[in-house]
Amino acid sequence: ARLIYSAVDSNPLSVYVMHPFWNLVVKFLPTWLAPNLITFTGFMFLVWNFLMLAFYDFDFTASSVGHEHVPSWVWVSAGIFNFLAYTLDGVDGKQARRTNSSTPLGELFDHGLDSWACFFFVATVYSIFGRGESGVGVATLYYILWVVLFSFILSHWEKYNTGILFLPWGYDISQVTISVVYVVTAVVGVETWYQPILWHFLYRDLFTFMIIACSFTVTLPMSLYNVLKAHRGNTLKHSSLYEAFLPFFSPVLLFILSTLWVVFSPTGILEQQPRIFYLMVGTAFANVTCKLIVCQMSNTRCQALSWLLVPMAGVVVLALSGVAISETLLLYLWTTFVILAHIHYGVSVVQQLSDHFNIFEEERIGLTEAEV
């Protein structure tokens, strides 16, 4: 079985710069290198960036005045690893087509890890500005994270409804910009970002403005336009607008539950443990999004409620009631559960897809033929 992958990428940076670059890079990769291994390696570069910054800046205060700053070599490494991750994310599909090994498993693996990567991008970039006086507050960053998460799911919601994945323009621009900013930070120091760009307009304000403006003036309008256009043209894959908007129920519920925890936390959990709270939200979101991706791949109806949100509702009630001995301990335990549940879900789906499409058997036969 082979995957018919329908996607539209009209970003000039991607079309005229990055794709030619990726076409050159993929020629240097050995044909025996599995596309999914390329995807996973790129994702692990992002995880490593997150872990590096967590070691040097766990509570996002290292960039603040009077605190020990993150070493310059860490920023250089972060820039290199981020660009490598971006490059590998661009060449994995090309390697699959080059080796005639495109499968539904590859699409799920790629986009599934991308949904988790959204959190790692945001949390790692946050360390540049931090939560100090000239930085971004942890609550503000929480809502910025949600803007990024919803911008991501919009693309897959489009494909769920239209059958075509419209790749957002903001992704390529943000990845190149982030990689450059990391390296620039290593050269000029985080103190540079304290200075206003114009009057009292700081770099942190530019950072916030660009994310929100891109989402609400480009990503959201284009997504709604493409889906409504399909609805008017009777090419919508689902019978009604209710069915079309059904995939948003679980993400919105996740937003409501996590925001209730943030706003009414007895101990100010977001101020106390921002990194872990972001990790919990980002992982739970990735789990919800992966289920949407499976539905749009298999042309099945999206379930309104993700089961993970049922115990989460109980956890939020437990946290807000003050019954828990330690709200921080509760957050750590719940975050661990969410990560393990998401990994278990991913492994289970990969195994089921591999069995259904005989992917491992095809790869074994392909290797045998290559050896002969």
Automatic annotation (TrEMBL):
A single GO cellular-component term on record: endoplasmic reticulum membrane
Keywords associated with the record: Acetylation, Endoplasmic reticulum, Lipid biosynthesis, Lipid metabolism, Magnesium, Manganese, Membrane, Metal-binding, Phospholipid biosynthesis, Phospholipid metabolism, Transferase, Transmembrane, Transmembrane helix
Domain of life: Eukaryota
GO biological process: phosphatidylethanolamine biosynthetic process
Membrane topology category: Multi-pass membrane protein
Statement: the UniProt record of this protein carries the keyword DNA-binding: no
Transmembrane segments annotated in the record for this chain: 37-58, 70-88, 108-129, 135-155, 206-228, 240-264, 276-294, 306-325, 331-350
GO molecular function, one term: metal ion binding
Biological pathway: Lipid metabolism; Phospholipid metabolism; phosphatidylethanolamine biosynthesis; phosphatidylethanolamine from ethanolamine: step 3/3
A Pfam family: CDP-OH_P_transf
Cofactor(s) needed for function: Mg(2+); Mn(2+)
Reaction equation(s) it catalyzes: 1-O-alkyl-2-acyl-sn-glycerol + CDP-ethanolamine = a 1-O-alkyl-2-acyl-sn-glycero-3-phosphoethanolamine + CMP + H(+); CDP-ethanolamine + a 1,2-diacyl-sn-glycerol = a 1,2-diacyl-sn-glycero-3-phosphoethanolamine + CMP + H(+)
EC number(s) per entry: 2.7.8.1
InterPro entries: CDP-OH_P_trans (IPR000462), CDP-OH_PTrfase_TM_dom (IPR043130), CDP_ALCOHOL_P_TRANSF_CS (IPR048254), CHOPT (IPR014472)
UniProt key word Glycosyltransferase: no
Subcellular location: Endoplasmic reticulum membrane
Family: Belongs to the CDP-alcohol phosphatidyltransferase class-I family.
Free-text function comment from the UniProt entry: Ethanolaminephosphotransferase that catalyzes the transfer of phosphoethanolamine (PE) from CDP-ethanolamine to lipid acceptors, the final step in the synthesis of PE via the 'Kennedy' pathway. PE is the second most abundant phospholipid of membranes in mammals and is involved in various membrane-related cellular processes. The enzyme is critical for the synthesis of several PE species and also catalyzes the synthesis of plasmanyl-PE, a lipid required for proper myelination and neurodevelopment, from 1-alkyl-2-acylglycerol.
This protein's name: Ethanolaminephosphotransferase 1
Organism: Gouania willdenowi (Blunt-snouted clingfish)
